[in-house]
């Protein structure tokens, strides 16, 4: 079971790294092309800023899920660093489950919001806004999966360094 969980985490990490890298590179390429077109050729790309804004939304939500796997989110650890290992693990389990529960609670609302946006099109690119806002439930789902998989590893007694990063 532990090997399966670790394999799932590794595959998800790889996919998230790949997707965020592609998004970031495409965003940088389009913004650079926009700068070149605007200032060298005096012919701006009308859709570039909209594209950058919308892919940035995806970058944030998928990147947030990846940060969970690496335990890189901002945290105040003044108290937990002074706790015994077993207590720290218990706190981590409770925190993971609370975050997962909060996101699970918000997931139906996120899906409902995406459905409400399905009739709207973006200004320049004319893509459905539901494609943009779908980043929210996708990101929430990835984070919940990571939180639950981490919790399984902690309960199984996996060392802390192997659980995150």
Automatic annotation (TrEMBL):
<keyword id="KW-1003">Cell membrane</keyword>
<feature type="transmembrane region" description="Helical">
    <location>
        <begin position="90"/>
        <end position="107"/>
    </location>
</feature>
<keyword id="KW-0472">Membrane</keyword>
<dbReference type="GO" id="GO:0005886">
    <property type="term" value="C:plasma membrane"/>
</dbReference>
<keyword id="KW-1133">Transmembrane helix</keyword>
<keyword id="KW-0997">Cell inner membrane</keyword>
<dbReference type="GO" id="GO:0015740">
    <property type="term" value="P:C4-dicarboxylate transport"/>
</dbReference>
<dbReference type="GO" id="GO:0022857">
    <property type="term" value="F:transmembrane transporter activity"/>
</dbReference>
<feature type="transmembrane region" description="Helical">
    <location>
        <begin position="21"/>
        <end position="41"/>
    </location>
</feature>
<keyword id="KW-0812">Transmembrane</keyword>
<feature type="domain" description="Tripartite ATP-independent periplasmic transporters DctQ component">
    <location>
        <begin position="27"/>
        <end position="155"/>
    </location>
</feature>
<dbReference type="InterPro" id="IPR007387">
    <property type="entry name" value="TRAP_DctQ"/>
</dbReference>
<feature type="transmembrane region" description="Helical">
    <location>
        <begin position="53"/>
        <end position="69"/>
    </location>
</feature>
<dbReference type="Pfam" id="PF04290">
    <property type="entry name" value="DctQ"/>
</dbReference>
<dbReference type="InterPro" id="IPR055348">
    <property type="entry name" value="DctQ"/>
</dbReference>
<comment type="similarity">
    <text>Belongs to the TRAP transporter small permease family.</text>
</comment>
<feature type="transmembrane region" description="Helical">
    <location>
        <begin position="127"/>
        <end position="149"/>
    </location>
</feature>
<keyword id="KW-0813">Transport</keyword>
<protein>
    <recommendedName>
        <fullName>Tripartite ATP-independent periplasmic transporters DctQ component domain-containing protein</fullName>
    </recommendedName>
</protein>
């Amino acid at each position: 079971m532990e090997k399966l969980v670790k394999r799932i985490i590794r595959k998800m990490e790889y996919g998230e790294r790949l997707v965020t890298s592609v998004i970031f590179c495409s965003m940088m390429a389009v913004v650079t092309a926009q700068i070149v077109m605007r200032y060298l050729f005096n012919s701006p790309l009308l859709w570039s800023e909209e594209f950058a804004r919308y892919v940035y939304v995806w970058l944030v939500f998928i990147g947030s899920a990846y940060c969970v796997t690496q335990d890189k989110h901002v945290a105040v650890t003044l108290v937990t660093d002074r706790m015994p290992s077993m207590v720290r693990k218990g706190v981590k389990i409770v925190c993971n489950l609370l975050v997962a529960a909060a996101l699970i609670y918000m997931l139906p609302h996120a899906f409902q919001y995406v459905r409400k946006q399905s009739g709207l099109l973006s200004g320049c690119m004319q893509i459905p806004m539901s494609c943009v806002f779908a980043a929210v439930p996708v990101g929430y789902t990835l984070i919940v999966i990571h939180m639950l998989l981490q919790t399984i590893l902690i309960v199984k007694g996996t060392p802390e360094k192997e659980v995150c990063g």
